[in-house]
Amino acid sequence: MAAPVTLMLIAGATQAIGAIAAGNAQAAQYNAQAQAAAYNANIQRQQSSAVAQQTSAREDLQRRQARQIIGRQVAAGAESGVNITTGSASDLLRQSLYDAEMDALNIRYEGEINRVGLLNQASLSDWEGQVAKKNSKTAQRAGYLNAAVSLTGAAAGAYGMRGAAAGGSSSSFSLSNGSTGLGLRQGGGTGLRVGGGTGLRY
Q1: On the chain, which terminus has fewer CB atoms closer than 10 Å, C or N?
Q2: What's the pLDDT score for residue 18?
Q3: For 58-83, b where at least 16 C-beta lie within 10 A, e where not — what string?
Q4: What angle, rounded to 10 degrees, do the helices at 87-165 and 2-79 form?
Q5: Residues in Cβ contact with 195 at an 8 Å cutoff, skipping those fewer than 6 apart
Q6: Measured between alpha carbons, how far is 120 from 173 in angstroms, rounded to an integer?
């Protein structure tokens, strides 16, 4: 009966190792997602800063160009003897100044929308990264839990087989999960351990 028991324990250990490996592989994928999300968040914040700088430059350029155009209009009116401080000429000047300022403010508004949108995307990327990190830990823990289930099943089966072979003689097994990994021990001399180093002893 020793050989079937040994094979059962080996099968359990193999399943446990596979479960841990699968959990670690899935955890690695989630870690890669977290790193990608962090990278995206960093790029989006850099783009937000660039948009703010470009918007400020465009706004300043709009105002300079508007002042130049209005200045030429005022000079042309003065040369032709038009009094720009009263009447329709004054109204046109005020309207030109208003339109120029509105153009500059529209540039600022559009730039601010783009900047805030990029920051919102960065915040979303941060959240996705946090979720991926949590999923990574969960996947790794699930791998060890599945390994424990495999070892427990193998131990229970081996215990039943040894008990049947011994005619119901007393035997026992224990399963532990310490800092070094998973451990399984049955009876007096049968041991199975999956942890820092994986080994099977019968």
Answers
A1: N
A2: 87
A3: ebeebeeebeeeeeebeeeeeeeebe
A4: 180
A5: 178, 180, 181, 182, 183
A6: 55
- Answer whether residue 176 shows pLDDT above 80: no
Lowest mean pLDDT among 91-95, 104-108, 138-142, 167-171: 167-171
Residue 101 scores a pLDDT above 60:
yes
Residue 48 carries which side chain, given as an amino acid letter?
S
Question: Sign of dihedral through CA atoms 84, 90, 92, 95?
Answer: positive
With a CB cutoff of 8 Å and minimum separation 6, the contacts of 201 are 190, 191, 192, 193
Cβ–Cβ under 8 Å, residues 13 and 193: no
Is there a contact between 93 and 84 (Cβ–Cβ < 8 Å)? yes
Tokens representing 69 are 């155009």
Contacts for 156 with CB less than 8 Å, ≥ 6 apart: 173
Q: Are 69 and 132 in contact (CB under 8 A)?
A: no
Name the token pair of 120: 């919102």
Residue 14 confidence class, pLDDT cut points 50, 70, 90: confident
- Length, in residues, of the chain: 202
Structure tokens, 62: 């709009």
The DSSP line for 166-181 is: TTS----EEEEEETTE
pTM (2 decimals)?
0.64
